[in-house]
Amino acid sequence: MDKKRLSIGFFDSGVGGISVLREAMKLMPNENYIYFGDSKNAPYGVKTVEEVQELSFKAVDFLLSKGVKAVVVACNTATSAAIEELRSFYKNIPIIGIEPALKPAVELNREGAVVIMATPMTLAEKKFNALQEKYKSQAQIAPLPCGGLVELIETGNIEGGVVEEYLREKFKEVNSDKIGAVVLGCTHYPFVRDSIINVLGQDIPVIDGSDGTSRHLKNILEDNAMLNPAEKQGKVEIYNSLENAAIIDLSYKLLNK
């Protein structure tokens, strides 16, 4: 088979990476995609670095067994913990990661703190600390670990009283009188964007890295002459480590949200 027509693989610790997949599909609708959600082991953000690395290698091996031409680590935690090791081991395939979209939030130059919502592991890893160090002179940066939010989203709680009450309590922890922008540092969190806006108000920008990651993916494929030349709509296959119909149904629901 022509390598250009092979699928692009995506994986995440559950359904969250579908937020990145959606953006990639908008940008490259003629590509084929395979998504693997590791909901059985979600969330990655409370595991050890070694555990996340082991799970990440298993996910990439699964995608490679399906015959993919590139892999997107659509998980901030897995990117922080494992991207360097994955790239070092799988040298013959592009591996694209994701990181909190801090730069565009800082460049808005708004009064108040830039709040970064993420899993505890993402915020603790050196990759995030290096990113924070880079921009700390330009803005007040307020990391906000959101333990438990991934679990809510994995059960389909993306709107309504339960998730909004969680968010209200969580934003009370922000060490700032004013919030200038919110960065979604976990690929699950874009699915509760509307709930965040309901809690904080319409005036506060809520930013995630899905668009930037998708554009980077396209550039990498273009540079390596790997873009699919097909003119028709590509196909999407979704797999999940839980292997039950409910999580697959939720995945397709979020894909079409």
UniProtKB/TrEMBL annotation:
Catalysis performed (reactions): L-glutamate = D-glutamate
Keyword Protease: no
Catalytic residues of the enzyme: 75 (proton donor/acceptor), 186 (proton donor/acceptor)
InterPro entries: Asp/Glu/hydantoin_racemase, Asp/Glu_race, Asp/Glu_racemase_AS_1, Asp/Glu_racemase_AS_2, Glu_race
Entry keyword set: Cell shape, Cell wall biogenesis/degradation, Isomerase, Peptidoglycan synthesis
Binding site for substrate: 12-13, 44-45, 76-77, 187-188
Database matches in Pfam families: Asp_Glu_race (PF01177)
Signal peptide range in chain numbering: none
Keyword Phosphoprotein among record annotations: no
Protein's pathway: Cell wall biogenesis; peptidoglycan biosynthesis
EC number annotated for this UniProt entry: 5.1.1.3
PROSITE patterns linked to this entry: ASP_GLU_RACEMASE_1, ASP_GLU_RACEMASE_2
Origin: domain of life: Bacteria
Gene3D superfamilies: 3.40.50.1860
Molecular-function GO terms, alphabetical: glutamate racemase activity
Role: Provides the (R)-glutamate required for cell wall biosynthesis.
Family, similarity comment: Belongs to the aspartate/glutamate racemases family.
Protein name listed in UniProt: Glutamate racemase
Annotated source species: Clostridium punense
Taxonomic path: Bacteria, Bacillati, Bacillota, Clostridia, Eubacteriales
Gene: murI
